[in-house]
Specification:
Blueprint: H1 17-22, H2 45-56, H3 67-80, E1 84-88, H4 91-101, E2 109-113, H5 122-126, E3 130-134, H6 145-150, E4 156-162, H7 171-180, E5 184-188, E6 196-197, E7 200-201, E8 208-212, E9 225-229, H8 232-242, H9 247-250, H10 271-282, H11 284-301, E10 308-310, E11 317-318, E12 324-329, H12 339-348, E13 354-355, H13 373-376, H14 385-388, H15 393-400, H16 404-409, E14 413-417, H17 424-443
Parallel strand pairs: 2-3, 2-4, 4-5, 5-8
Antiparallel strand pairs: 1-9, 6-7, 6-11, 8-9, 10-12, 12-14, 13-14
Helix pairs in contact: 2-10, 3-10, 4-8, 11-17
Bound molecules: pyridoxal-5'-phosphate.
Pyridoxal-5'-phosphate binds near residues 117, 188 and 214.
Length: about 450
């Protein structure tokens, strides 16, 4: 009889000793051998040389458009088939600018998925608006259009859909809903660079598409973001929020006269981040090709495994970006082990796995955004200003606090890195490790790790 510490325990009732010994966590042979280092370069040698060349000339900032900034914006317009793009210093800044541009103001509600990163929703508070969370489609993890429609009120100003983990949301439905109710549609495409729905790029379906280019994002400038739109007035409104260096020269519909001054925020990107992102964008096709192939290898390896499956996409969707490979764990086929124990045992096999982070907000497994203090308990009026006017959270919550699909997946999702430049053999070994632990767990129901 074994536990993770090797001690005898009353928990181990039905454990088959020989099965248990097979698990690496109990001293058995590891499934994954060799290095897990992903050889995909986030910063290419040429990108670094370009940054060095700009620095050598003393060019370390750029307030106006033109040069690398315009090149990046043209690149994103091509990628998303949109007219206008505005580079900013983060994805959060693009979401804030988008909500501002579509007119979110104190008293307004914005519908946003209960399963996402907090930055999809938090900028709504900055404008005095109220985030109203909606449930997700359990299969794809994207916003559930029927649930979104149920939550629309006369106060709804906008809907934000998130193409989570590069998986496009059901955009034809969301466009139809936003038109019928006359509410704005924002796409948070922070994970989904290059993804498409019905052949049309994400970011181009809604009024504004927002992309983070931070850290590990598929296109990255370290800390960076970009918003795209076909609407020149919305572009101008984003400009006047945080880009005083470009207000005079870059307005598309001449919406404002401002003496070149903006509303007090500075969302200008760092020039070096823009240079990094340009290099990264030039490699996006290759990155997406590799990730799709690797995802397929993992899918094949897990084919028929009921305990661990990959998250589904809509038939009209073409994934892109990914950011991470997310797995759905079904404990009913794996001895009832909870997902944290399962992940721990798989990790011991040499797989770089963990529990999903958007359903373990602030490090608490099973916790989703609507359950956080920020979105449920905080009394915003204590902060004063426009934020203080977002005082309706409690009321909205009491009426709609129900996210069965998001809650169900919250104790089932596991995360792997988005494998890009690793060997096929390594991915297969990871798949085998998942199957091995699931099979042994199924025989060891009472084991506690
Ligand atoms: C879905 C989503 N939206 C928005 C953001 C915010 O982007 P940034 O970190 O660039 O501000 C992130 C960042 O991880 C994200 O994952």
């Amino acid at each position: 009889m074994f536990t993770a510490t090797g001690k005898q325990t009353e928990h181990l009732v039905n454990l088959t000793e020989s099965s248990c010994r097979q698990l690496a966590i109990f001293g058995g042979p590891m499934c994954v051998r060799g290095m897990s280092f992903d050889r995909w370069r986030k910063a290419g040698a040429m990108d670094i040389l370009k940054i060095a060349a700009y620095a050598a000339l003393g060019r370390i900032t750029q307030a106006e458009s033109g040069g690398p900034v315009s090149k990046l914006e043209e690149g994103f317009c091509r990628l998303t088939t949109t007219e206008y793009a505005l580079t900013m210093n983060s994805g959060t800044a693009t979401l804030h600018s988008a909500y501002f541009a579509v007119g979110v103001k104190p008293g307004d509600e914005v519908i946003v998925p209960a399963y996402t990163f907090f930055a999809s929703a938090a900028p709504i508070l900055q404008l005095g608006g109220t985030p109203v969370f909606c449930d997700i489609d359990e299969q794809t993890l994207t916003a559930d259009p029927d649930d979104v429609e149920r939550r629309i009120t006369e106060r709804t100003r906008a809907i934000c859909v998130v193409h989570i983990w590069g998986n496009p949301a059901k955009m034809d439905r969301f466009v139809e809903i936003s038109k019928r109710y006359n509410v704005a549609l924002i796409e948070d495409a922070s994970h989904a660079h290059g993804a498409k729905y019905q052949g049309k790029p994400v970011g181009s379906w809604g009024d504004i598409g927002c992309f983070s280019m931070q850290g590990d994002k598929p296109v990255s400038g370290g800390e960076l973001g970009i918003a795209v739109t076909n609407n020149p007035e919305l572009y101008d409104r984003m400009l006047i929020l945080g880009h005083y260096g470009r207000i005079d020269s870059d307005q598309k519909a001449n919406s404002f006269q401002s003496d070149g001054l903006c509303l007090g925020l500075k969302y200008r990107p760092h020039l070096f981040g823009v240079l990094l992102a340009l290099g990264s964008l030039s490699r996006l096709v290759e990155l997406n090709k590799r990730r799709k192939e690797n995802y397929k290898i993992l899918a094949d390896e897990l084919s028929g495994c009921k305990a661990v499956q990959l998250v589904e996409s809509y038939i009209e969707a073409e994934r892109g970006g990914f950011l991470e490979f997310i797995l759905r764990y079904n404990p009913e086929y794996s001895g009832g082990w909870d997902h944290t124990a399962f992940a721990k045992a798989v990790k011991a096999e040499g797989v770089p796995i963990d529990i999903d982070r958007y359903s373990a907000v602030s490090g608490m497994p099973g916790r989703i955004l609507p359950e956080t203090d920020l979105f449920s308990k905080l009394n915003y009026s204590q902060f004063g200003g426009a934020v203080g006017l977002a005082g309706r959270c409690e009321e909205v919550k009491s009426v709609y606090d129900n996210y069965p699909a998001a809650k169900k997946v919250a104790t089932r999702l596991l995360r792997l890195p988005a494998f890009t430049k690793v060997s096929k053999r390594y991915i297969r070994q990871c798949g085998k490790a998942l199957r091995k632990v699931a099979d042994i767990a199924a025989q060891c129901q009472d084991l506690r790790i």
